[in-house]
């Protein structure tokens, strides 16, 4: 009853304020910032410039070196600021590293956090669909009413195109592409359809007298080399960009292949069992036949000996010898023994030997059974990966769904365990499901905007993760998770499928 009332209340809230899952490029857009430089002399603003940038960690931003060139040349007079795409505040920043040859710079926020984007580390081919994200100056000129408009958080401008060629410009790998950019886009990311950064927009061609316009972006491999030299960690993703439908098709194909392999293994095991049974039946039959023949042969020998004893008794009786009776008694005993041996000879029908059957798969454990420590490994062929690294996950659930670290799971539909949560400071909402037998761990991740994340947290997604055995608390948690699941009805940005095995002691 408590769960029902709580669920009804949360459902009403969710219905009043519908939530929508963002697309991958939209999620990447929240990692894009405006980078501002302000020149000051004697306390007065004498110069202003801006470009774009993208977060590679929650507190560090990559942009073009030429965007912050004035701060490099005049560090005491030029301040650097960062304007996020969401929220209400802008932040001061400082230079961390500059590479003039690659035209890249790394700056750090003095406060605040920005969702970090992932960098695509796989091969980029000509023809790849891409999207440029940033703050083109011509859009600002058309819409801005004052300098204040430049430091108000707003979503970056999107421009679609494709990679035309991969070129080296003055020894630096670049991507030539057709996404429209303008001054102000400098330092902003070029992303693929899954929102991974494939390059940093740097400069564009002139389009005089009707010439087609092209843009150049510093290639991701130059970006990752710069970050490595700057000792800056980042999320590098090499997995191909798949639609959810493609990922689901691959997942089905992988499951069907596994089922086919399991069926073939079962058939092979059954055939081997049948062969073993035939061999044992043959051996048993041969053993029974040998024993029968030996028993009959022994009975025959005894009959021969009995006849010999009877013959000796007849000869002795004619001679009046006293041993005749002993001989006849011996003959009688031998006849009885032979008869007993013949009567108890083994049957030709051998008993079918029992063959120990190999258990197929262990039956699924009920959600009331504890699952020991398990190591779960990402299955790329069954997953859609956009921003997450392929790290192993360790899990151990108690009989009441308490995981290591104090995270409480609740029974899910069809058995198993589930947990819906907005993780700490991470800009993501997740629904994790562990199968009842602990063999499969599935994580679906949404990357919504900050307002949606706040609403999900209000539903209970960001509440305390402490384990509990209180029925009322578990009912409230289950209801909150049901409401979050309903609110996240759109497709997830990621679907990560892990195969789990018992951890070695």
What features would you describe in this structure?
The chain is of the alpha+beta class. It has helices spanning 2-16, 24-29, 69-73, 137-143, 220-229, 244-318, 324-343, 450-461, 471-487, and strands at residues 32-41, 44-57, 60-63, 78-84, 91-99, 104-109, 118-120, 129-134, 157-169, 172-177, 189-191, 197-204, 215-219, 235-237, 371-378, 393-397, 402-403, 407-408, 410-411, 417-422, 429-434, 440-446, 494-502. The strands form 5 sheets. A 7-stranded antiparallel β-sheet has the order 16-15-23-22-21-20-19. Strands 1-2-3-6-5-4 form a 6-stranded antiparallel β-barrel. The chain starts with a helix and ends with a strand. Residues 1-22 and 355-366 have low confidence and may be disordered.
Q: Compute the gyration radius: what is it? A: 40 Å
User: Low-confidence segments, ≥5 residues, pLDDT <50?
Assistant: 1-22, 355-366
DSSP strand count: 23
Sum up the overall morphology in one term: elongated
What number is the mean pLDDT? 83
How far apart are the termini?
Answer: 43 Å
In total, the number of domains comes to: 3
Q: CATH architecture of the largest domain, please?
A: Beta Barrel
List the keywords.
single chain; 505 residues; alpha+beta; Thrombin, subunit H; 3 domains; seven-stranded antiparallel beta sheet; six-stranded antiparallel β-barrel; 23 strands; 33% helix; disordered N terminus
């Amino acid at each position: 009853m408590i769960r029902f009332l709580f669920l009804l209340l949360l459902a009403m809230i969710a219905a009043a304020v519908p939530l929508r899952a963002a697309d991958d490029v939209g999620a990447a857009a929240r990692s894009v910032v405006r980078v501002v430089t302000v020149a000051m002399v004697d306390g007065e603003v004498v110069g202003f410039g801006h470009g774009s940038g993208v977060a590679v960690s929650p507190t560090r931003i990559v942009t073009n070196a030429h965007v912050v060139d004035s701060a490099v040349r005049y560090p005491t007079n030029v301040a650097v600021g960062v304007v996020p795409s969401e929220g209400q505040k802008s932040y001061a920043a400082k230079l961390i590293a500059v590479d003039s040859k690659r035209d890249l710079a790394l700056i750090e926020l003095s406060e605040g956090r920005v969702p970090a984007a992932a960098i695509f580390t796989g091969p980029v081919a000509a023809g790849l669909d891409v999207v440029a994200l940033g703050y083109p100056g011509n859009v600002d000129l058309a819409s801005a009413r004052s300098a204040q408009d430049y430091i108000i958080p707003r979503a970056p401008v999107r421009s679609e195109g494709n990679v035309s060629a991969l070129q080296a410009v003055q020894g630096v790998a670049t991507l030539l592409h057709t996404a429209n950019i303008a001054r102000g886009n400098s330092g902003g990311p070029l992303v693929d359809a899954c929102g991974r950064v494939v390059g940093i927009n740097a400069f564009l061609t002139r389009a005089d007298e009707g010439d087609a316009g092209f843009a150049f972006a510093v290639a991701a491999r130059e970006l990752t080399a710069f970050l490595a030299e700057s000792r800056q960690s980042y999320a590098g993703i090499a997995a191909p960009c798949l639609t959810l439908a493609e990922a689901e098709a691959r997942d089905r194909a992988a499951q069907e292949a596994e089922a086919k392999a399991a069926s073939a293994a079962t058939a092979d095991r059954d055939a081997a069992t049948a062969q073993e049974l035939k061999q044992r039946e043959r051996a048993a039959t041969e053993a029974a036949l040998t024993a029968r023949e030996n028993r009959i042969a022994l009975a025959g020998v005894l009959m021969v000996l009995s006849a010999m004893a009877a013959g000796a008794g007849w000869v002795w009786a004619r001679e009046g010898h006293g041993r005749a009776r002993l001989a006849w008694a011996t003959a009688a005993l031998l006849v009885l023994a032979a008869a007993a041996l013949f009567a108890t000879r083994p049957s030709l029908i051998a008993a079918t030997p029992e063959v120990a059957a190999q258990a197929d798969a262990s039956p699924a454990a009920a959600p009331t059974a504890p699952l020991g420590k398990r190591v779960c490994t990402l299955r790329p062929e069954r997953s859609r990966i956009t921003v997450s690294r392929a790290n192993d996950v360790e899990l151990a659930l108690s009989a009441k769904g308490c995981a290591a670290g104090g995270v409480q799971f609740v029974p899910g539909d069809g058995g198993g365990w589930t947990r819906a949560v907005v993780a700490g400071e991470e800009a993501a909402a997740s629904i994790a499901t562990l199968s009842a037998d602990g063999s499969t761990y599935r994580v679906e991740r949404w990357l919504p905007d900050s307002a949606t994340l706040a609403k999900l947290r209000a539903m209970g997604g960001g509440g305390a993760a402490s384990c509990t055995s209180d029925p009322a608390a578990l009912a409230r948690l289950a209801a909150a998770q049901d409401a979050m699941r309903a609110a996240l009805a759109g497709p997830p940005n990621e679907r990560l499928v892990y195969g789990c095995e018992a951890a070695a002691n």
